[in-house]
Design a protein that fits this description.
Blueprint (H helix, E strand, L loop, with lengths): L4 H17 L4 H8 L3 H8 L7 H11 L3 H5 L19 E2 L5 E7 L6 E8 L4 E4 L7 E8 L1 E6 L2 E6 L3 E5 L4 E6 L4 E8 L9
Antiparallel strand pairs: 1-2, 2-3, 3-10, 4-9, 5-8, 5-10, 6-7, 6-9
């Protein structure tokens, strides 16, 4: 979730800018993203507190990355981001978390995420826009990746990739904590970056 006032103001500005650039009214963005108009009005006034699912739906609908909604202008040619400097966007009921570390720039941006999943903890994701490809690399532990209803075990040292335009779930499995790096490859397009 977006937690600080400054972060919320940045999200509010970026959502409003992307919505205006896309030529969408609050009603139309809400309909397409399945977010209430009231929640969008509050968000654009920096009064909301959107969760990860809401940010993903808005980003997909607006054709931008999640981090394009969350980040201010780039600070230089090289960015180094420490995991503890980034607030989790998702926190599981057993202590797992997901942190969006950064998004690359260019015509086809890539989001880089750090995830921690505890055994039997899961995060279900709705389908993303067509052309999104996700990759998960397990660095320790084991997870179950469910894509379009089919389960796939991914263990430490293994990487899996799939088209993200279908329902998918990340679930910790085994007896210990699962750590993974996830990348989300966004399709090229004129609105793919901000």
């Amino acid at each position: 979730m977006v937690e600080t006032g400054a972060a919320l103001r940045t999200v509010a500005h970026n959502v409003r800018t992307a919505r205006t650039r896309a030529g969408l009214s609050l009603e139309e963005l809400g309909r397409r993203a399945q977010v209430s108009k009231g929640a969008l009005v509050a968000l654009e006034k920096a009064q909301g507190n959107p969760n990860l699912a809401t940010l993903v739906r808005l980003a997909d609908t607006l054709g931008v990355s999640v981090s394009a909604l969350m980040q201010g202008p780039p600070e230089g040619r090289v960015r180094v981001v420490a995991a503890d400097a980034v607030a989790p966007l998702w926190t599981g009921e057993h202590g797992g978390e997901a942190r969006l570390m950064l998004t690359t720039s260019g015509p086809a941006p890539v989001e880089v995420w750090r995830w921690r999943l505890e055994p039997d903890e899961e995060y279900p994701s709705h389908p993303h826009q067509a052309g999104v490809v996700e990759t998960v690399s397990v660095t320790s532990g084991r997870m179950t990746l469910v894509v379009d209803g089919t389960e796939h075990t991914v263990e430490a040292g293994q990487t899996a990739t799939f088209d993200g335009d279908t329902p998918h779930t990340y679930r910790g499995s085994g007896t210990g904590t699962c750590h993974l790096i996830m990348t989300v490859h966004l399709p090229p397009g004129p609105t793919g970056t901000t």
